[in-house]
Design a protein that fits this description.
Elements lengths: L3 H18 L7 H8 L16 H4 L8 H15 L6 H13 L8 H11 L22 H10 L3 H12 L6 H19 L7 H18 L9 H14 L7 H7 L7 H14 L5 H9 L3 H16 L6 H6 L3 H24 L1
Length: 345
Amino acid sequence: MLDQSKFEGCVLGAAVGDALGMPVEMMNGCEIESRFGRITEFISPDRNPNMRFSSRRLQAGSWTDDTQRTFANVFALIESDGRFDMDLFASNFLFMYNSRENRGWGRSTRNSGARLIKGEHWSISGEKNGCGNGVIIGISPLGLLHSVVGGNVDEFIKNCITYARMTHLGTPAIVAGAVHGISIASLVRQGSSDFNTEFFLNDLLDAAIHIENDFSLEKWDDKISDQVRAIRNFMTEGRFDAASPYDVASWFGGGTPYSPNSFGVSYSLFVRKPNSFDCVFDAVNAGGDSDSNASIVGSLVGALNGVSVIPQNLCDGVEGSNSLRSAAVRLFKAVCARQELTANE
C-alpha cells in the first residue's frame, strides 16, 4: 500500500538530521560530548569555533547544502511529472548554484557547478575522482520515485549512475549513491515492523557487488561492498552492542565526507536502531561529517517508519518545515500519478 507518510518522513528526516548535525560538522565525538553533551535539539553554529565560514551565519534549525540538493531533486521530479529527466536535474542543480547561497558545498559540487555554468553538458561536468558524499546526500528522491513507479532495477541503477556523474566520477561515490537509492525504495515498500537487518544487509551487499562489477565503472580499491561486509560482520560479532556512536565512527575513518566512510558510519548507525530516531541523534553525536551523515540516516529511518518517527518539536522547528512537507506530498502525488499512467499504457 502506498504511504504518503514515508515520503514526508524521508524528506523531513533528511532535513532534520542535516540541521541537527550542521553546528558540529567535522568535530569529533569526544569534542561534541565535552562541549555540548548529547545533542538532541537544534543548536546554533556559532558555538563551534571550527565552523566553516559559509555556515556561520545559519541559525539553529537551519540546514545545509545536503537539503538544498535534496530539495532541488524533489522539485525536478515534480516538474517532470514523476519522470527521470536528467536535463531537469541539471537545470535545478544549476539554479541552486546560481543562487550563490553557499551552505557548505563540497569541492566536487562547486567545481561541477562552475563547469555547468560555463556551458559544459551534465554528462561531462563531473569531478574526476570525486569521491565525497555529495551524491548520496541528494539521491533519496530518486529512491522515492522508484519505490512507487518500480520497473527494471538495472535501468534505475543506470539512472542513478547518470545522476551521480553530473558531479562525481569516483566509483565509490557513484556506488554509494546508487545503493542508497535502492535502499530508500526498499524501505518505503516494507512495513516498519517487517524490517529484518540481516536480509537488508544481504540485499545491500548484493546490490553493491552488482553495481561495482556489472556497470563498467572504474575499479577502485575502496569498495562500498567492503563497507557493507564490515557492517554485517560488526553486527554478527556483537560489536555494536556496547559501542558508542564515536566508536562506530572510528571504525569508518571518523565518518569523514569520503563516501565509503560516510556510507559505513551512516548505515551502521541506522541498522543498530532502525525503528527509532535515536539513530539520527547517534549520527549527529558520532562526529565527522555530522550533518551529511545524520541527513543520510534521517532519510533511511524516515523512509522506513514514516514522518511519525521524527520528534514533533524537530518537525516543527526545522527550517522550512511546511515547505518540506508540502514538497514531499507533491512528489508523492506526482509519482503515484506516473505509476497509474504507466500501468494503463
